[in-house]
Amino acid sequence: MSRGDDIHLEAHASGEATINQAGRDQHVHYTDGTRARRRAVSAAHGQECPYPGLAAFGPDQAHWFFGRDEAVADLLARLDDRSRRGGLQLVVAPSGAGKSSLLRAGLLPRLAGGALPGSAAWPLLVLTPTADPLGALAARLCSRSGERPDEVAATLATTPQHAVTLLSGREAVVVVDQLEEVFTLCPDESRRGAFIRALAYLAAPGTEGPAALVVAGLRADFYAACAAYAPLRAALQDRHLLLGAMTPHQLREAILYPADQAGLDIEPGLVELLLRDLGVTPGVDAYEVGRLPLLAHALRTTWQQRHGATLTVRGYHDTGTIHSAIANTAEHAYTALAPAARQAVRPMFLRLIKIGDRAEDARRRLSRAELAGVDSAALDAFTEARLLTQAAGTVEITHEALLRGWPRLRGWLDDDRAGTLLHQDLEDTAAAWHRAGRDPSLLYRGGRLEAARTWADTGGTGDMSPTARDFLSASIGIRRRAQRLRAIVVAVSALLTVAAITAAVFAFAQRGEALHQRDTARYQRILSESDRTAGTDTALAAQLALLAHRERPAGQSPDETYTRLLSTQNTPLPVSLKGHTDDVNQVAFSPDGTTLASASSDGQIRLWNVTDPDRPGPRGRAGHTDGLFAVAYSPDGETLAGAGRDGRVRLWDVTDPDRPTPRGRPLMAHDGDVNAVAYSQDGRTLASAGQDGHVRLWDVTDPDRPTRRGRPIAGLVTALAFGGKTLAGAGSDGRVRLWNVADPGHPTPYAHDPINHVGTVYTVAFSPDGKTLASGGDDRSIRLWDVTDPAHARPRAYPLMGHTSSVRAVAFSPDGKTLAGSGDDQSVRLWDLAALHWPVPRGPRLTGHHDNVWGLAFSPDGTTLASASDDRSILLWRLPAAQQSAHNGGVTSVAYSPDGKILASGGDRSVRLWDVSGRLTPRGPPLTGHTGLVYAVAFSPKGRILASGGDRSVRLWDVSGRPGRPLTGHAGSVRAVAFSPDGRTLASGGEDPRLRLWDVTDPAHARLRGRPLTGHPGFLYAMAFSPDGNTLASAGANQEVRLWDVTDPDHPVPRGRPLTGHTGTIRAVRFSPDGKTLASAGEDRQLRTWDVTDPDHPAPRGRPVTGHPGAVYALEFSPDGKTLISSGADGALRLWDTTGRPSPRGRPLTGHTDNVLSVRFSPDGRTLASGSTDRGLWLWNLDVAPAIQRVCTLTTFTPQAWREHVGTDIPYAPPCGS
């Protein structure tokens, strides 16, 4: 018996054999007189290994997971905080630190055990991103909703916020292990971004907390890669957990406690030996954190060499110790293989590793199909040794420690690294080619083919997969065919060249041609300069585009400048105000919006007439004795306060803004600089903050006799803002403080939770309703705080990341739906706040300043934004009138009424109608009734009825907003609706996936026509009737377009064979106005056109057209059929000339910051409407004349800018005149 355990051992010996009892083991000694052997017989305890080796601990091994209790407790505390304020929780750790084990064996069991209130009942959704992160997330979300993962993944690609609805209102925990796979394995940028946004939506704070707690483990060397994604940047700046090396005490726990739990003994001295070999030295806690897997593997192999129930020093030495345990295991598995299987090991491992090009190598997961041809004996041997892991049809290296710890593998990686990178690229491209049905457009050409062929010719073919060999052979074959064709062309060209040279000599002898060549070179130079400056000075870029438009030589396509100028109409362009001789620090609009005040370090307050913001002019001045940092209008607009370097606050009577006069004596406010001044909403109190560390309140009920209110408030404050009876102050200590000033004579601080930044906070502003506070500072972020109850302030949303340097100013628009921010990156950024819990960028950043931007102010009508900069200028930004933030969850669909006067948009459970006769303005309240996203809207041909599709239903509305009864029958969300040209039939389709035809002759009594049509096995995303109404086209997730004969809509039948060729989900189909051409596009980034003159025998029209870098979501023909518009995941709209094979018309139309899901031409073809997941509903006037007029009205081309950007070889002649 041992330790009181109920274990009984019994043995008998005879002859010279002896038996000793040691602990729970019996040691039997055998001898033949000259030699001796010892065998240990252990109790039933100790037969299960408590050390998983290179594999991570799983939830079922939590009872063996020790040494990370403090980290688990820390993570739980952070998640408890997240359950109230939301936000993505990142766990960042170097490779090998144990983040996967922390999440799986530390966090998950604790949550399942109720470590957080209610967590025992929460669904725990665990995933790794893989090469298809959206598919992985969809699979986990669908495990609860019952929907098809592939269809949900397709939805998430365009509307990542759909992830929230899939949780059905239940709180859940989403754990993403190995988040770095989105960078190492996912090749599709748009799907990577959608996955990250979906996680952010799940974690976004709501009125009752986030939809889910989201935790993601990230390898530390991918920290920089996160910078390109706003949600990840925000998460890294919002209390991420950095997991480091374990302390010696924690390491002892991780060694001893699992052994004790499993009924094992550890020989004295073994723990110290393990720690020494790990690199832990007396007095120094740190060791190389990446070596932890080596310890884990050594413990497992030592258990395999245990003596009975005891882990011994001898057994540990037999494994090769920490230094070589992994190498010994791998080498043993390798050498034990037959020679043929051994040959397969090198290519197998090289394919399972993502070779880093200027980055660390990383393992990657492949399907068994992708490893077809690999010797199964090799695969099984390394799996049995736990160096490879096979699960769910996939194979991966168990831990990256093998990459460093096995010298043979390290040698394979370092031997001809350039060739290995080339081989990796070849295998990846070949796999994509194979998945795309061996599409010839994906074959290698040019330099890539030559490099691959050279590598293969020098012995690389032995490591190639069969698919890669086929891919390379096909690439070589297509090149040979091209070479044969080229030889014929060269022969013909040689004859033509002689004639051309003769003609050229004659042509260049003529002055006219020489001038034409010169003008063409100048034109191209100006165009290039316009593109180059677009990211730094929008006004200058617009002027250069206009100059190129004016100077376009004969023979150059007008589309190049046409599309550049069209893009300017939805970009705010600035009017510049100059006159200050030093930095301009702050600006303020008068309450009536007719005057702008600016404060400068030159000691002057300047007043500007902005009655017409397009043509501003100077008004009066107010002089101070030293530089000015702050200026503020009283609410009645009659008094202006200014303060700065001299420590005084001066009040000015500005009832006549052309002749401001002092009011009373200067207020001796502070010892040193005055940083800020602000008026209360009632105008009776003025607050000032100084460099002396005090905030003072002044009674300005009589502005000619101001007096101090109460005692000064202590605090080094850089900015002030009033919100009702609350005063906010931004501090250099990184905190924002709130005071109750209901009694201004006795202000009291609110004991709220910290409102913090990292570094100095430079700016604060209250929303118009006083419920939200914005702050910005040195940490480059803008943060939004819910201050409905100032005593319990809490974050409203993620920190807004976008500025690349300190944020110096923030300002709310008068309606509170837009926030502006500016700073040391010399730019202004706008954010859409229609959904406060999820702000999104509104348009591109505004550029034009050439130094730090310190001041921002919106005009009272919200149409103009003023910015002030150290470049001594003020810019007035005229915000485009043809833009609206239409739906909180993004705009999924748009449609024009037949008369072109009304635009409908669909989005977040609602439909909205817009008047497009002037400014884009709402036409009544939103039409509500849908219980989910509205994916599709369409007007009937007569314009009296609007159809919308979404939550398993179609709804019919008359334009007055009165709904008809819902048309039900769909088993999933309705993704597409379309009226027949005669208006009597409505087609609908979606996720179930059946296509239904409805008789809507009497909309009040609509009925189903015939039986639902089947033929698409996946989602239906797109439908369109031919102009004659006899044919219906449908397309979706099965990558086919189907044509239906609907001449008799009660008995529709298929037409011809399905149109195939797309290699991804088809998102859009459209007929040309003459009905002879059908266009289709989707997630394969291709635009295809089909000849449907005879719809029973459709045929492709030429090769597919490419141009979009991501998925294409929308298509539309112009009414004259000469232009096709497409839009997609890159946020751009592309125009295509369809008079022949579709060809690009100039540059894409840019401005949207996210997926553009819908585009429509107005019935007269003069206007284009676009809807995006950035919430933007935009109108584009396709007549370039208004865009030119706007450029000339708002911007100027100075002689200095001409010299710098056009050159001195062209006389100064600005395109808008002098």
Automatic annotation (TrEMBL):
WD repeat ranges, renumbered to this chain: 577-610, 621-654, 667-708, 754-795, 800-833, 846-887, 884-917, 927-960, 967-1008, 1013-1046, 1059-1092, 1105-1137, 1149-1190
PROSITE patterns assigned to the protein according to its UniProt record, in alphabetical order: WD_REPEATS_1 (PS00678), WD_REPEATS_2 (PS50082), WD_REPEATS_REGION (PS50294)
Membrane spanning stretches: 487-509
Pfam families on file: nSTAND1, WD40
Domain of life: Bacteria
Domain called Novel STAND NTPase: residue spans: 50-440
Keyword annotations: Membrane, Repeat, Transmembrane, Transmembrane helix, WD repeat
InterPro entries hit by this protein: nSTAND1, P-loop_NTPase, WD40/YVTN_repeat-like_dom_sf, WD40_PAC1, WD40_repeat_CS, WD40_repeat_dom_sf, WD40_rpt, WD_LIS1/nudF_dynein_reg
Keyword Nucleotidyltransferase: no
CDD domains assigned to the protein according to its UniProt record, in alphabetical order: WD40
Gene3D superfamilies: YVTN repeat-like/Quinoprotein amine dehydrogenase
Matches recorded under SUPFAM superfamilies: P-loop containing nucleoside triphosphate hydrolases, WD40 repeat-like
Protein name: WD40 repeat
